[in-house]
Amino acid sequence: MPLDEYRRKRDRGRTPEPIPAEDPTPAEPHGDVFVIQQHHARSLHWDLRLERDGVLASWAVPKGLPEDPGTIRLAVRTEDHPMEYADFAGDIPAGEYGAGRMTIWDRGRYDTVKWTDTEVQVVLHGSRAIGRYVLLRRGRTPKEWLLRRGDPARDPDRRPLPRELSPMLATPGPLPEPDEGWCYEVRFGGTRVLVRVDGGRVELLDTQSMPLPDRHPELAGLGATLGSTAVLLDGEIGGTPPGLWISDLLHLDGRDCLELPYSERRALAESLPLTGPHWRLAPSYPGGGAAVLAAAAEQGLPAVLAKRANSPYRPGTSDGDWIEINTGATPPPTSASAEEPDQPPDGAGTAPSSTAPATASATAPATRARTGGSRTVSSVDIDGRRVRLANPDKVIYPLTGFRKRDVLAHYLEVAGAMLPHLAGRAVTLRRWPDGVDAPSFFEKNVSRHVPSWVRTVRLPTPGSAAGSESIDYPLIDDAAGLAWVANLAALELHVPQWTVDPDGEPRAPDLLVFDLDPGEGATIVDCARVAERVAGVLAEDGLAAYPRTSGGKGMQLYSPVRVTRSDQTNEYAKAVAERLAAADPARVTAVMAKQRRRGRVFIDWSQNNPAKTTVASYSLRGRQRPTVATPLTWDEVGGCRRPEDLVFTAADLPDRLARHGDLMAPLLAGGHPLPVR
Q1: What pLDDT, on a 0 to 100 scale, did the predictor assign at position 615?
Q2: CB contact burial 106-137 (16+ within 10 A = b; e otherwise)
Q3: Among 19, 159, 336, 448, which residue carries the largest CB count within 10 Å?
Q4: Where are the domains of the chain?
């Protein structure tokens, strides 16, 4: 019967949805009512319903109806709904099928162009949905469909939401004089991001238009709040705790905003719902630059950004319309966690910095302790340097009770093996100041709080978080440096596959890496089998492969190489990955898309991109337990039959180093020429 499935899924006594007792009598003609409902269920989606034979034929569209003919959306055929549902809006209680808020997004009438079991073409006449749409059944099940627009977009000037765009840069300098016609924002020293919101889904991109490794699930609510509004935002993940501060609007619902003056872009941004528990529109102050700078310096924030009010947004350039003014301040200590980005005080527009230093660190040998208020500080003497440790007994891994002093103990234990692999490599820190159950953040620029005895290297980074064209990365080349890192609760150290020369200039890559990532339904056991096959291909070219756990769910293989071009390793790794994926497509993929990874191992060749990093060998990972990126023997790889066979924590490393030494030592001995594939 037409509505049996609909009634089976619903309890008349618990849900406010209409549940007719009788099935409808099919009418002639078929009917022409349509309704689109925005459904805030477990994940936001839009329900397209078309009247047909007395019921509403229904499809769930995760990202909503496409406005551009080139955009294809997934649509899932669901059970037919009663005609009464065309008027339904309300809250479906928790625990019920489809629990969540339902609102009517659009309704009207439609014309049928074609209706078969595998294709439906209609012309919608609504207030928001207007035009021809095509539903095509795909796959083996009747539920899998695709939805596309079948005619040109209504607005001929409409532009698709960009996928690749470089952030505008700032020019370092003093406060502009006079400051009439300038607006001022503060910088938090965090991570510069572009925020792409499409169909209620949030995607965070770095300055190279690549997805951020940390997806920040706490920002998913921003997509739900914006709903069908498509935007591209410029912002920064910073503050304490880290939140998203939105600073500019680059695209809005098919409208390219780049040529609009900043004042108009700002007004458009202020018209959007951009305030939430973990995100907020950064304050902007017209004039009064000296007061904003003084307030930012008082709170330890690194910089103030001056924007000319009439300036367009120039991607990837610095033309003097944006000026970064350094405050010269030392940031305050990292504060405790909070539910949302800190409110800026009156007249300042600032929040505590996400990169505020915790410059005291301690544990293990020769410690001295003192207490100030509720804050305990110890110190450790390492090779003549006294390194402080703030709150050494603070629990960083709540599940196991692993404390900050244990983090330091681990890094001092593995220093002999780890430091040679860090030598000459610009380190990106990933910090968990409030423990692994709280938000983390990446830190590259340490110029504001690094001790004088920690070497740094200044490297070009167009689109950096503070609007600068270069960043001072730390070089960790002694045990005292590792102790400083531990004090910052920088559990993870990430490094590129290249080193810098004595003048601080990047050399060509000296490492080739294959990052093996198991998709849903696969495990590290599957990675081990793929690792053996990758090693076999490398052996054909005279290359040795050295395996390692990621400390997470996957593995990496490294090989020391010599190259003549910086992109040579990326090209070679891609060719190997695509060869293995073609040979065994059921188990291996070389494509990043998550839907292609199910049950397969993704060979991520792109980690060889000079702009990318991988976690360093012997680094802790910010997981529930203090797992470690651990070098392996090939016997361990071949003998892996259960995922737990290749899980190692900090407690396992002393015995492993005593038994095996540094299994990655061959990476330091010089590389083999990398052939062209």
Answers
A1: 97
A2: bbbebeeeeeeeeebbbebebeebebbbbbeb
A3: 448
A4: 4-149, 171-326, 367-495, 511-673
Q: Two tokens at 604?
A: 């991520």
CB 32 within 8 A of CB 109: yes
More confident residue, 525 or 209: 525
Please compute the mean of the pLDDT values over residues 647-663 and round it to a whole number: 95
Tell me which fold the domain 511-673 belongs to.
Alpha-Beta Plaits (3.30.70)
Residue 292 in contact with residue 184, Cβ under 8 Å? yes
Task: Determine the residue type at 295.
Answer: A
3 state SS of 143: coil
Give 196's contacts (C-beta < 8 A, 6+ positions apart): 161, 162, 163, 202, 203, 204, 205, 231, 232
Nearest one of 275, 257, 254 to 266, comparing CA atoms:
257
CA–CA dist 512, 480 (Å, integer) = 29
Other C-beta atoms closer than 10 Å to the C-beta of 217 total: 9
| Homologous superfamily in CATH for domain 171-326 | DNA ligase/mRNA capping enzyme (3.30.470.30)
* Site of tokens 């609009």: 260
Structure tokens given for 601: 């191992």
Which of these, 460, 160, 161, 495, lies nearest to 316 by C-alpha position?
460
Quick: pLDDT tens for 244-285.
999 999 999 999 999 999 999 999 999 999 988 899 999 899
The residues, ordered by sequence, that sit 6+ positions from 217 with a Cβ below 8 Å of its Cβ are: none
On the question of pLDDT at 338 being above 50, the answer is: no
For residue 633, CA distances in Å to 545, 630, 660, 662 come to: 11, 10, 9, 11
Phi, psi of 393 (to 5 degrees): -95, 10
Residue 368 host element (H or E): strand 367-372
Q: Give, in order, the Cα–Cα distances in Å from 66 to each of 57, 63, 129, 231.
A: 19, 8, 10, 14
Q: What are the pLDDT digits (tens) for 41-95?
A: 988 999 999 999 999 999 999 999 998 888 899 999 999 999 999 999 999 999 8
Give the C-alpha distances (Å, rounded to integers) separating 499 from 493, 506, 547.
15, 6, 21
Q: Are 555 and 630 in contact (CB under 8 A)?
A: no
What does the DSSP assignment read for 442-502?
A: EE---TTT--TTS-EEEEE-TT-TTS-SEEEEE---SHHHHHHHHHTTEEEEEE-S--B-T
pTM of this prediction exceeds 0.90? no
